[in-house]
Each structure stands twice: as structure tokens, then as C-alpha cells.
Amino acid sequence: MILRALRSGGPAAVTDLSEQLGVSAATIRRDLLKLEEEGLLTRVHGGAVVEEGDQPFAEVAGVRVAEKDALAVAAADMIEDGQSVLLDIGTTAYRLARQLHGRRLTVITSNLVVFEELADDTAVELVLLGGVLRREYRSLVGFLTEDNLRQLHADWLFLGTSGVRPSGQIMDTTVIEVPVKRAMIAASDQVVLLADAGKFPGTGMTKVCGPEDLDTVVTNAPSDSATCSVFEQAGVKVVRV
Prior knowledge:
Strands 6-5-4-9-12-14-15 form a 7-stranded parallel β-sheet, sandwiched between helices. The protein is an alpha/beta fold. A hairpin with a 4-residue loop joins strand 7 and strand 8. It is built from 10 helices and 15 strands.
């Protein structure tokens, strides 16, 4: 819970964590010391910070669920029956998959949670991309995944992100996933970024693409967000939910 709080909200003081988690400051300090010894965070004066890096699927699945569901509903409304849909890794794509039950669609994904969600839905033609299994992140990656994508075409790609820079650059913390994301973009007619307000600026050390590679951004970021203005100036449609 401490790691999730730090990853979703950034650096935090001991007192803030104590109030947020409903435990004593002494308990928080002891846990921070243990987590630092395990290399999972860095203690700073009065609190702690989590260094940028991969987040296992299970750690983020329960973060900002209502916001992700709102994005998912808006995204599902864009899709017409009979179309092909490419779903990226991550929890927001999973929330979108939950909105696609019973739809006459082709869904292509390297996201194992999406696959599991739709596997028993006979209305959906489901295509699982091959690749190397990343167990904790519930995804398939590598040259096999990229090669599969070069042989496919999708009407829509719904892309996730770790963070969106003020310049409109789309970032990811997971270097090994970036080539797959780029291959997904190349395989799709319409590229839609799903990014809740927590992704502005979010995290990420590796560039996936720029605003010129996007067609639409679905977000609940404030309407006066400077980054959203950058998207609009680049000709990207911004759908606010």
C-alpha cells in the first residue's frame, strides 16, 4: 500500500502516509526502512520516494479505477461493430476490454488480462499475439510480438502510457514494451491514447511516440491543461470525460 501510494501520488511525507493508510507514523517509518533495505524506495527527509521503474500489473490494477472506467466507456463508444481493435498492455486497456463484451469485433492484444477477460465471449473474435511472457506485467513482448504485428492491420489502437510530457511526448517506464507499442502504432489506422489525469506528467524514461503519431486522446485531465493544448495544436482530437 505504501508503494502504491508513492507511485500514484509521488513523494510523500511520513505524516501524509500515516493519515492516508490509517497507521501510526512509527509504523510508517519502520516500513519505509524495511522497504529501503529491499531496494524498493528511497527515504528522503521526512518521507520517501519511489524511483521510476516497472510496476507489476497487480499493483496498479486497483488505482484510479473509476477514472479508467470513464475513459473506457468513451473509447468503446468510438468503435463500430465489425471493426478490428488493438488493445495495448496495462490496466486501462483491460477496463476497455470489459466494455466490449457482446460486441461483434475483432480484438487483437498482447495483454493477457484482456485475453482472459474476453476468452469466453463468443461474439468477439480474439487474436492473441505471440511473444515472450512477462509474468508480473501480464504481457507478451519481443521480436515475435513485433513480427506478428507487422502481419496484421487494425482499425483502432487504444494505447496506454506511463506518462505524458508537457511537450506531448508519450513515455513509458518499461523499455522492453516500447518496440511493441511502436509496432502497434504502425499497424493501426486510428491511434487513441487513453490517459487519465494521473499520467500528466506521470512517469517514464523512454519515448514511445510524439503527438504527431496520435489521432485522439481520451482523458479526464483539466480542460486548461497545457499539454492538452499541445495536442490540439498538433491536430489531435482531445476527448474529455
